[in-house]
Design a protein that fits this description.
- The protein is mainly α.
- Helices cover 78% and strands 0% of the residues.
- The protein has 16 helices and no strands.
- Helix 11 (183-194) packs antiparallel against helix 12.
- The longest helix is centred in the C-terminal third of the chain and has 47 residues, at 262-308.
Length: 362
Amino acid sequence: MLQTTKAVYNRILDLGIASPQVVINFAMFLEENNYFEDAFSVYERGVSIFKWPNVFDIWNTYLSKFLERYEGRKLERARDLFEQCLDGCPKKFAKNIYLLFAKMEEQYGMARHAMAVYERATTAVLPDEQFEMFTIYVQRAAAIFGVTHTRQIYEKAIEVLPDSGVRKMCVRFAELERKLGEIDRARAVFMHGSQLADPRIHGDFWKQWQEFEVAHGNEDTYRELLRIKRSVQAQYNTAVNYMSAQMLAAAGQTEQVPDGGAADTMKALEAKAVAIAEQAKADAAAKNKLLFVRSSEKEIADEATREENPDEIVLGEDDDDEEDNATHKPQVVEVTQQPVPSEVFGKLAAAAEAAAEATEDG
């Protein structure tokens, strides 16, 4: 009976008409009859035949049965099986595999290997499951190494998680620092998380921060909390107004105007054009007033000053011309010639006189 059943199952696998459930049933049948290695061989054939996501059930059953059978006696072989399973595993199915892998390392392997598996799992699962994986990671790290070892896990979670997860993780991180007596570090964590918490929507975050400041802060720290809250509120108001304007503009472009509303639309456009023209005239008048009022007042004041000064001397154009002619008239200087004393030339003068006399005698 046993050999006949094995032959039927093997024939189904050889023909390629087996389903994942047939593979699991065949392996379970062999396990019930104490053919454990044969059962594991069937699982191996199944994972080589099927691909993801159909192979998930086979892998999940295979790994569970292997750990149940050998526990920690064949640890390296179990690690190789987990690595083979995770190679190409979609994020949708990675969570259960990583949790089973980490549990094996905690029970039969090394704690640091288990922490490495948890860390890999935080980035290998779906975004919706990341917060849960970080929560499990923090719990196991605190249980194995202590709460101080969880600080770096919280920091990585704040970097990786989306905004909704960051707010929750910041509250937990701040609570941890408060329990450790690190009030300043807890306040810094609250400040970091406040940038992602809209006071109108995430009131729980601000309420917890206020309770923290009431219990451990002072007037200055509470005033700083209120200042940050107003700043974040203004930031989100600006962002909401901008998004609303963009949505209204997009809706206005895509909206179809009905037949009866065409006249109203034209009237609105004309009124807008008139308003723009009036605003332009007002701006031009203000600009002219700003540029020319001061110089006009100065000229009027100068004219009034000139009219009221009786002692002012007025020079005519003729007087100016006469002064210019008198200034530019050339002057004649008489030059008187005087003889140069012979002592100036010394011996040269005596030689020159001798030469002149010789010329005259000749």
